[in-house]
Amino acid sequence: MAPPRPKPAEPAAPTAPLTRELVLRALRQIDRAGAALPPSTVYELVYRGRRYPPRAVAEWAHRLATGDAAARWPHPAGTPTNTALEALDFTISTKRPVLAPGHAADAAESADGLYLGGPEPMPVAAEPKAKYAPAGPPPAPYAKAEALAELLISEEELDAALAGLARRRNLLLQGPPGTGKTFLARRLAWLLLGARDESRLELVQFHPSYGYEDFVLGFRPDAQGQFRLVPGVLPLLCQRAAADPARPYVLVIDELNRGQVARIFGELLGLLEADKRGPAHALRLPYAPPDAPRFFVPDNLFVVATLNLADRSLSPLDYALRRRFAVVELRPQFGPRLGALLAAHGVPTALAGRLTARLTALNQTISDDPGLGPEFALGHSYFVPPPGPLPNAAEWLRLVIDQEIAPLLADYWRDEPATAAAQLRKLRGVLE
């Protein structure tokens, strides 16, 4: 008698889809319950300044999706889980190293190896002696009339931004992506300097790997492999500004909230305030040698920073830092100024009018969507033409819509593809 044939394996039940809203619900429940999650070994999910083990969060959200409190997340820790969470616009980072108890002596022994050269003090890398002034002709003057010709904001809005910068010494430009924050930051700096003077302007972009050692002071290896104390962007610019007190200097910080702001600034947070400038408020930097002069921010240094409101995976800005800035909100500018700019580059006036009206309506739809909001509105920078006339204005607009706006709308309404398609059809319709 032939043995019975084994039953064919039943197909595995499909995995419940993981959405961003489910993960956010899981994070809220974890915080409210104070749940002790199993720690991860390498990676962490970073959300609003807190860190969570990615797989434990994914499993919690998976149980919400399935309605089964005992359900297991079907993917292992590491790349499979991290990829699923990153696809939902969450930030996954490598864990911060934590010194295990009882290893302090090992750490001290390792640190001793940094001080090469015996008992002699650690050499401090000095600032290069090169002149900062350009070798060519003096920088071209820059006045308000030129700025207004380049910008889409009104003269009153420009004056208000300059007044905030003059009053607080620190200005924060915040708004949805594509609203010209970095473009405006440079023009504000040039107006303050009175010229397109790059020798008195420093631009730095924060990111998750940027730290105090890059911005203020830290140890770095030199060409001989020895570790030296090297000043970062801020002290070098402050040194130049202090040596030239009669003229203003500007530091532009792009994407301020992409870095860990409190860690990057450290103890210098207080020195940014307008009434804490100058030698009277100088502080000793942690890594500086005992005989090094104390550090201060000179009165003629101005800071202009930009902040993207749409990236919810980033930590909210430290309130202690935020209150030291005057804040200017930038909004999409789909009005007559953009229409005139498009017409000047060869876009027919009727087409420019239909386009700006349609984009205004689309931004209202985005603002009214409870899953999005006004911080996700489309910025006007997408539709600012490149310099010079457009050979085919309609074709240029079509490419912008298909290659830049369409993917963005698909991402906004990833759970509602019909909504994204309907809005895209309406936008493409202005070209017909």
UniProtKB/TrEMBL annotation:
The keyword Hydrolase applies. One of its GO terms (molecular function) is hydrolase activity. Keywords: Hydrolase. SUPFAM superfamilies: P-loop containing nucleoside triphosphate hydrolases. The keyword Membrane does not apply. It is an enzyme of class 3 (hydrolase). This is 5-methylcytosine-specific restriction protein B. Residues 167-331 form the AAA+ ATPase domain. It comes from Hymenobacter caeli. Gene3D superfamilies: P-loop containing nucleotide triphosphate hydrolases (3.40.50.300). Its EC number is 3.1.21.-.
